[in-house]
Amino acid sequence: MSKNLVIVESPAKAKTIQKYLGKDFEVKSSFGHIRDLPKKGMGIDLATFSPDYEVSADKKKLVTELKAAVKKAEMVWLASDEDREGEAIAWHLAEELKLKPENRKRIVFHEITKNAILKSIENPRDIDQNLVNAQQARRVLDRIVGFEMSPVLWKKVKPGLSAGRVQSVAVRLIVEREKEIREFIPKASFKLDGVFLNKAEQEISAKLKKDFDKEEDAEKFLELSKTTEFKVLNVETKPGTRSASAPFTTSTLQQEASSRLGYNVTNTMRLAQRLYEEGYITYMRTDSVNLSQEAIEGAKKQIISEYGAEYSSPRNYTTKSASAQEAHEAIRPTDFAVTSIGDAQLNRLYQLIYRRTLASQMANAKIEKTVIEIGNAKLPQHFEAQGEVIIFDGFLKAYGIVKTEDDDEENNEKLLPKVKVGEILDYKKITATEKFTRPSARYTEAGLVRKLEELGIGRPSTYAPTIQTIQNREYVDKREIDSQTREIVKMSLVKDKIKKEVLEEKFGGDKNKFVPTDTGEVVSDFLTDNFKEILDYGFTARVEGSFDEIANGEQKWKEMMTDFYSKFHPRIQDVEEHAERATGDRLLGVDPKTGKNVHARIGRFGAMIQIGETDDEEKPIFASLMAGQNIATITFEEALELFKLPFDLNEVDGQAVSVGVGRFGPYVKWGETYISIPKGEDPLSVDQKRAEEIINEKKLADAPIANYKGEPITKGTGRFGPFIKYQSIFINVPKKYNFENLSQSDINELVEAKLEKEANRYIQQWEAEKISIENARWGPIVKHGKNIYKIPKKKDDTKYESEELKEISLDEVKKWITDQDPKAFAEKKKPAAKKATTAKKVTTKAKKPAAKK
């Protein structure tokens, strides 16, 4: 057995490091954190803010293996990542594995290369408790905020919602941007463009320096231009330079990978993690733009070799952010001699990092910018043509230029022909086009990261999980926004004649940008109104500053928690007691048929339209909104249209047919089967013929593909991928099978494996109580409904064997459950019978999910 045990947090990292260390070292992975706050309950003593950490069920076997390996080793090297999260992983390992200071060493490295690993072994240190405490402070504070704010949302908005410190602020940014777009009033003006010809018939495209607010002023200018002799009034040529951007930080990598490669933040970080673990790049969670001297020398050598000495211009960059922490270097290649790697997907991101780092060490690009002024003294405004020539490409040779979404799409700078001051030009065409101002753009993932960083909210490690969480919670999504159409006026002056035409242009459409959901908007407004400080951008940034102070040893973390909680908890109590319920209610108008008010609001099952008041003698009726509709913008007319759903059509094969809309979108109901209507299709347009087409497509999809012991086998694709169905059992089909062409032997194999697994699943089962003792991946568990509970140890502190569990009584199992969840068997409050009946009568059809096709 090796004398030295090295523990890292990922198997890929372990594999890479093992290559660099000799036979005296064994490298094992902890697969991330081995312990954390419990999944059930808060897990924090609110009197002392002491966390109650536990080893999760899926890590117990691993911890046992690590403990066995520790016993055989003379020295344990804790080699998790160098940031706060990595420091906390090392500390949890030391605590759980009971490592004594004399038998453990903490090593960190910024890159997984042989030199870096061996150097870290030569320079070990102990665990930095300040970094650990900064991570604990973040974890504990965020757990408290989530656990105390979420129940308030259940009471005041709707059940099942959750809140988070950074996530709620991110949602607020998206909601405020959407409101800004809604309230934006576009302003029209007329922009003039001219195309002029010199004596050599070369074209010069130019823009009028100032726009006209009124159509008549633009038309007057065109009239005046008919008889104007256009001249070159001025030619100005001036040299300029463009300099390269700094090497990548986490944030700028996420932004650039989005604009250049189309990668989302999560995908970028997943690929960057692999590049780091396989030794190709330095650590990818950093807010520093600094490069080591070794890296600067490596880049210089590669630039001279690849492009020539004139392209080399070594330099270092300084990080502007005062809160930049823990990171020693920007993200860069570990070896500049590696110009590409084999894996195509990894190589695209590697090339971006490689080129950006090289560019940062290259000479500035030299340009020559030319501005030509065209006009006449009798004109109120003059035209201007701009162009530029690259004299020396410098860093552009490696990195090129990419336009951002904020760049003016019409500002296409180009090469201009040579002209002299006083030279007469002929106009070929002058156009005046009505243009409307545009609101601020919705956030892309990269744009949201940029804004969070700008506000000092979150840190490199938090951007990706924050963005993932707000989508998982369905507070925001990236649904497509349909364009609207408006008329614009365009006037053209050609050959002394003005032609006026009215054109149509599309505006307001969007895709792949963040839009708040109805629930997200109502929750954000409620939290902003009632927890102003927590949702305040400055407060969130100050909390991040406090974590930095804890990491630097300038503040004690429990003192920070005490100060925070002394203000936070009383606010929770006050809001819980006094705040009004939040529904986002909008009164749209009065229903012409019943004379009752029509409301758009959030209900128990999401956004809906309500006709009537809840306290009326005759209970209100409800309709679900369709995809693309929301309570903040739906019109009165659109709302009334929804009450035409559901509607009945003629029977098909003796089974009733209707069309409706539910929580998961519009559907055709055939008998008891719900069939999704294709995306983008208006359910109100579905007639008998179209409904039958949809039903026949469903029949075809559901037709048996084979039999097993005389029972039909069908197949489909669900949220967890392709499956086959036998009787009432769904069986996932792994990738090794050809799903489109399953043979009978494939089907037999899949069904038999599933039946064998199901037969071995239950140790004991009490169906009436929905309680069972089951075999799970890491050992036996207790299930009650959908909840999972641990099986406690016996009185002698040993585990129950499977045979012993077969003899355990139901009462004993119930005791195990209530020990872990005292409210597990508490009776749920039943809604008033009258209310339930009314809701069922009107909304049952709209609440059932539409089956996937």
Automatic annotation (TrEMBL):
HAMAP family: Topoisom_1_prok (MF_00952)
Keyword set includes DNA-binding: yes
Coiled coil (residue ranges): none
Protein purpose: Releases the supercoiling and torsional tension of DNA, which is introduced during the DNA replication and transcription, by transiently cleaving and rejoining one strand of the DNA duplex. Introduces a single-strand break via transesterification at a target site in duplex DNA. The scissile phosphodiester is attacked by the catalytic tyrosine of the enzyme, resulting in the formation of a DNA-(5'-phosphotyrosyl)-enzyme intermediate and the expulsion of a 3'-OH DNA strand. The free DNA strand then undergoes passage around the unbroken strand, thus removing DNA supercoils.
UniProt keyword terms in alphabetical order: DNA-binding, Isomerase, Magnesium, Metal-binding, Topoisomerase
EC number: 5.6.2.1
Domain Topo IA-type catalytic residue range list: 128-572
Chain ranges of the Toprim domain: 3-112
Ranges of compositional bias, category Basic residues: 842-853
Residues marked Interaction with DNA (site): H33, R138, R139, D142, W154, R285, R473
Family of the protein in this entry: Belongs to the type IA topoisomerase family.
Gene Ontology biological-process annotations: DNA topological change
Alphabetized GO MF terms: DNA binding; DNA topoisomerase type I (single strand cut, ATP-independent) activity; metal ion binding
Region (Interaction with DNA): 162-167
Catalytic activity: ATP-independent breakage of single-stranded DNA, followed by passage and rejoining
InterPro entries: Topo_IA, Topo_IA_2, Topo_IA_AS, Topo_IA_cen, Topo_IA_cen_sub1, Topo_IA_cen_sub2, Topo_IA_cen_sub3, Topo_IA_core_domain
Cleavable signal peptide: none
Active site: Y283
Name of the protein described by the UniProt record: DNA topoisomerase 1
Chain spans, region Disordered: 824-853
EC category: isomerase
Protein source organism: Chryseobacterium arachidis
Oligomeric and partner information: Monomer.
PANTHER family, per the entry: DNA TOPOISOMERASE, DNA TOPOISOMERASE, TYPE IA, CORE
